[in-house]
């Protein structure tokens, strides 16, 4: 009979199935423990911070200081500009030592200077200026009301500063 399997083959199938099941159960317990300890959430937040962008290298020193450590922003330093226009030392800086990235991971992507939650959004370059509308255009140009902030931002021009190079991420 061609459909019969030997005892050795049956033992091999049971052994492989048992080992596979043990691996799945062990991985499930590890995942539940890691989730309970918050390791998976912290890992996810680190990925989100790394993907934020806004990391630039300065050509020359800037006239304002890091919003976190209050030290100057010198030439050839990497800085992170958040969507709220606050500028911080970034990565392996001798001054902040990745401080803003650690803060964003711990505080769920909220800027250190915001009293109410204001999510940090991925950094994007400013859009190009609009071309003038044709003279025969029937639609008036779209104007938006000015943005009202709860608190004034420190004088850190961030994205509008021509001394910043393009993102390295």
From TrEMBL:
One of its GO terms (biological process) is protein ubiquitination. Residues 128-169 are annotated as: Disordered. Residues 133-169 have a biased composition (Low complexity). The chain crosses the membrane at residues 6-32. Keywords: Membrane, Metal-binding, Transmembrane, Transmembrane helix, Zinc, Zinc-finger. GO terms for molecular function: ubiquitin protein ligase activity; zinc ion binding. This is Uncharacterized protein.
């Amino acid at each position: 009979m061609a459909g019969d399997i030997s005892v050795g083959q049956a033992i091999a199938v049971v052994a492989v199935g048992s080992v596979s099941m043990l691996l799945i159960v062990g991985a499930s317990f590890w995942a539940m423990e890691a989730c309970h300890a918050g390791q998976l959430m912290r890992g996810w937040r680190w990925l989100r911070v790394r993907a934020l962008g806004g990391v630039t290298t300065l050509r020359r020193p800037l006239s304002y200081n890091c919003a976190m450590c209050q030290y100057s922003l010198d030439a050839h330093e990497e800085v992170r500009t958040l969507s709220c226009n606050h500028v911080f030392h970034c990565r392996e800086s001798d001054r902040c030592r990745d401080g803003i990235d650690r803060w964003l991971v711990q505080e769920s992507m909220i800027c250190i200077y915001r009293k109410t939650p204001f999510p940090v959004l991925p950094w994007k370059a400013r859009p190009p200026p609009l071309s003038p509308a044709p003279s025969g255009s029937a639609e008036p140009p779209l104007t938006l009301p000015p943005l009202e902030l709860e608190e004034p931002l420190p004088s850190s021009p961030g994205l509008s500063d021509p001394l910043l190079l393009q993102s390295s991420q």
